[in-house]
Amino acid sequence: MSFEKFLGQFGIKQTVDVVKLGRSFFKCDDKTLIANRPLFAGECIAHERGPAIIPSIDWLQEIGRAARRHVVVDSKGEWLFICGRDVFGKSIKSHNNPKLNDFVVVLNEHKECLGYGVMSAPIETKRVVIKRLFDIGDLLRRERRAKRRVQY
């Protein structure tokens, strides 16, 4: 998937000048470095994980500010979403009328982006409304899964 297509899922039409090196996307000002085939060049803004693109935390905030479709959740919904749960209709405080199967950005009450998901049901229902695809707690959960051997 291209980075423009990824941003287009959220209704973002701006083009971002990115360079793909391996499985990572970089914002790079100096394009002459790319001819030398570096491992890193500039600011890393996203990684590919299988077919999905996972943005960095800083770039996730940029997506949250520019996205056309978003929902704002209360503090309990915020905590559950960061812990890897889906968003229920009763946790949503405000929204800008996303439709079914739309990609939406999940914001907390301070308008900070927590992650994103897909609308799976109308907001008025009390069941799962947004299926979580990525949230800011993902990094912590990945670290916890790795088993560490401590030798004394």
Distance between the termini: 46 Å
Strand order, largest beta sheet: 6-10-9-8-5-7
Q: What is the CATH class name of the largest domain?
A: Mainly Beta
CATH superfamily of the largest domain: PUA domain
Tell me what the CATH architecture of the largest domain is.
Answer: Roll
Number of separate domains: 2
The protein's oligomeric status is single chain
Whole-number average pLDDT? Answer: 86
User: Total number of β-strand segments?
Assistant: 10
The biggest beta sheet is recorded as: 6 strands, mixed
Overall SS class: alpha+beta
Apparent shape: globular
Low-confidence stretches: none
At the third CATH level, what is the topology name of the largest domain?
A: Archaeosine Trna-guanine Transglycosylase, Chain: A, domain 4
Q: Over all CA atoms, what is the radius of gyration? A: 17 Å
Into which percentage range does the β-strand content fall?
25-35%
Number of helices: 4
Helix content: 10-25%
The succession of helices and strands, N to C, reads HEEEEHEHEEEEEH
Describe it:
It is a single chain. Helix content is 21%, strand content 32%. By secondary structure, the protein is α+β, with helices and mostly antiparallel strands. It folds into two domains: 3-62, no CATH class; 69-140, PUA domain (Archaeosine Trna-guanine Transglycosylase, Chain: A, domain 4, Roll). It has a six-stranded mixed beta sheet. A four-stranded antiparallel beta sheet has the order 1-2-3-4. A hairpin with a 2-residue loop joins strand 3 and strand 4 (52-55). The longest helix has 10 residues, at 57-66. The model has no long low-confidence stretch (mean pLDDT 86).
